[in-house]
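Example 9 (inverse folding). The structure is encoded as follows.
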């Protein structure tokens, strides 16, 4: 099977579950992105500021660019003019900086709060209790130029499907709890970004609304 048919299968699976597909094009050339663009794909994800800037400049302007990786505060200013959504907001100070840079660009930037759900300490994100403390503080309510659209999480890199499922379920439960407590009348708070090439089917079964797929579409990265 070629990568194009993988793309179509994943897209179909996402649609069946009412989720959107973020095609993760990191390390891949603009030609590969254009090929998918011609298939109708408009939503692409990158995890490096340098790379997203270069690609955004070269590619059609109706592409919706999502920043999916860890983002340093001092680099927010470069992507603020065009980025559609930032998935990995893992610190209060980062959200504050996104708000500031979005304001400078007269924009509202969609953000997802990253939650640490994996049993690995290498991944970024708030713990459940840190996130609840932060939301309790209410300081985020003053931000006029960001929209908190939901949560993002990465499961442990393991073959244990029960563990992956339980991690995704914990993100889903936290989402529901936060929705009820802080975002009840806020339509925007609706996204669960979870699932990558190896675990996206479990993520879709666990209530993902945004799957982030790289290698299963574009082939392995170097
Ligand atoms: C690279 C990356 C992905 C995609 O990973 P694949 O396993 O290639 O699908 C998803 N999410 C994040 C945050 C990534 O950095």
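The amino acid assigned to each position is listed next.
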């Amino acid at each position: 099977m070629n990568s194009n048919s993988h793309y179509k299968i994943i897209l179909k699976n996402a649609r069946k579950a009412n989720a959107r597909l973020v095609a993760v094009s990191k390390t891949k050339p603009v030609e590969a992105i254009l090929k998918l663009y011609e298939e109708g794909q408009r939503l692409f994800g990158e995890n490096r500021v340098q790379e997203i800037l270069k690609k955004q400049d070269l590619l059609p302007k109706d592409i919706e660019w999502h920043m999916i990786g860890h983002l340093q505060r001092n680099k927010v200013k470069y992507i603020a003019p065009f980025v559609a959504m930032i998935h990995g907001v893992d610190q209060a100070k980062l959200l504050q900086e996104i708000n500031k840079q979005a304001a400078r660009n007269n924009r509202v930037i969609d953000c997802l709060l990253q939650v640490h759900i994996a049993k690995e300490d290498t991944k970024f994100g708030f713990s459940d209790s840190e996130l609840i403390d932060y939301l309790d503080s209410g300081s985020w309510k003053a931000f006029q130029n960001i929209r908190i659209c939901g949560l993002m999480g990465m499961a442990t890199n393991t073959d244990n499907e029960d563990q992956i499922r339980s991690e995704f379920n914990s993100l889903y439960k936290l989402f529901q709890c936060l929705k009820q407590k802080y975002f009840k009348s806020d339509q925007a708070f609706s996204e669960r970004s979870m699932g990558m090439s190896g675990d996206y089917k479990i993520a879709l079964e666990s209530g993902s609304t945004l799957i982030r797929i790289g290698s299963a579409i574009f082939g392995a990265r170097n």
